[in-house]
């Protein structure tokens, strides 16, 4: 089997795994169902278990679809940011994008609830501004991983203090968004699916058009300049798409960290660094990871649910420390 055929097979096989994981996720929750019951409820029109149908169609399937899209978005954002900075430690959380999008969305939800229609746009702008600030603080004859991390910590701390201030000033309203702040998919329905779907499609298509730019940036600035590429413009384009993908995700489910860090690294280990294969494979792998994390979040302490963001943090922190030691400065 040639290398190209092997990589294509991996992507197709990962899609099959995603379908299987989704079926597994549909089956389990605060109430577990047998697979044959689920198949009957989904595909047999005259099946008369209305409670099961309602749980599947109104609760679990929309939630799984949201997890698929958010996992895909965040992993693609991580790949793009890592291409921009040429290091495996970049991700929407560490570069301040997630925190910037979160604060912007939180301001809309609490202070300007009548502007909820513009929350995706607001989260995108907030994430982009936070990312730009991190880049400015970290820039010194280039971007080094350690400086990016330190700048990201500083910006995240500032944005965290703004969130804390809002907790104090709007203590009555903040209780309703606590679950959202921790990255929860609880309560998602078809309205949320329809709300995020068009933006996700735009983000995925846009990311796939950047395959060539990401590959060229990966080869180094000197090589790209010799080819006649405008490096700052390419970096800006990739960063804006990463912020867009992160912003729409945060606006819909809150802060879910480490997907954009773990998934691209795992994908590179499996399929290599060519973005022609890395981007689509990362999007599928990100969907798999977040669906699994959400399934764990609602089954580990059932019937009590914990936010998926907490599950990802438990998984992601050790992985980040491993990468930090491996990468060095």
Helix and strand topology:
Blueprint: H1 3-27, H2 35-43, H3 50-85, H4 97-110, H5 119-138, H6 145-169, H7 171-174, H8 178-181, H9 190-208, H10 211-218, H11 221-226, H12 231-253, H13 259-271, H14 275-299, H15 308-327
Helix pairs in contact: 1-14, 2-3, 3-9, 3-12, 3-13, 3-14, 4-5, 4-6, 4-12, 5-6, 5-12, 9-12, 13-14, 14-15
Describe this structure in words.
There is one protein chain. With 329 residues, the protein is mostly helical. It has a single domain (65-327), classed as ABC transporter involved in vitamin B12 uptake, BtuC. It has 15 helices and no strands. It has helices spanning 3-27, 35-43, 50-85, 97-110, 119-138, 145-169, 171-174, 178-181, 190-208, 211-218, 221-226, 231-253, 259-271, 275-299, 308-327. The longest helix is centred in the first third of the chain and has 36 residues, at 50-85. The chain is globular.
């Amino acid at each position: 089997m040639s290398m190209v055929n092997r990589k294509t097979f991996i992507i197709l096989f990962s899609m099959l795994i995603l379908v299987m994981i989704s079926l597994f996720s549909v089956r389990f929750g605060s109430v577990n169902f047998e697979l044959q019951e689920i198949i009957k409820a989904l595909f047999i029109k005259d099946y008369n278990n209305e409670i099961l149908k309602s749980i599947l169609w109104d609760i679990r399937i929309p939630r799984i679809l949201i997890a698929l899209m958010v996992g895909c978005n965040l992993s693609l954002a991580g790949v793009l940011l890592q291409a921009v900075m040429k290091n495996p430690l970049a991700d929407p959380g560490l570069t301040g994008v997630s925190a910037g999008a979160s604060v912007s969305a939180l301001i809309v939800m609490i202070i300007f609830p009548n502007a909820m229609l513009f929350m995706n746009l607001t989260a995108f702008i907030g994430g982009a501004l936070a990312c730009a600030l991190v880049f400015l603080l970290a820039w010194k004859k280039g971007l080094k991983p350690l400086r990016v991390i330190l700048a990201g910590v500083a910006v995240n701390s500032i944005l965290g203090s703004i969130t804390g201030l809002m907790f104090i000033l709007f203590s009555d309203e903040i209780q309703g968004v606590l679950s959202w702040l921790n990255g929860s998919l609880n309560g998602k329905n078809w309205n949320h699916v329809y709300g995020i779907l068009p933006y996700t499609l735009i983000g995925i298509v846009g990311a796939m058009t950047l395959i060539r730019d990401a590959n060229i940036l990966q080869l180094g600035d000197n090589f790209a300049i010799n080819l006649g590429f405008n490096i700052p413009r390419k970096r800006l384009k990739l960063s804006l798409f990463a912020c867009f993908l992160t912003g729409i995700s945060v606006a819909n489910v809150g802060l879910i960290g480490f997907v954009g860090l773990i998934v691209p690294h795992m994908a590179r280990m499996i399929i290599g660094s060519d973005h022609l294969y890395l981007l689509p494979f990362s999007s599928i792998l990100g969907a798999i990871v977040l669906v699994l994390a959400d399934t764990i979040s609602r089954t580990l302490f059932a019937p009590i649910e914990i936010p998926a963001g907490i599950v990802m943090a438990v998984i992601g922190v050790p992985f980040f420390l491993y990468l930090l030691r491996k990468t060095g400065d």
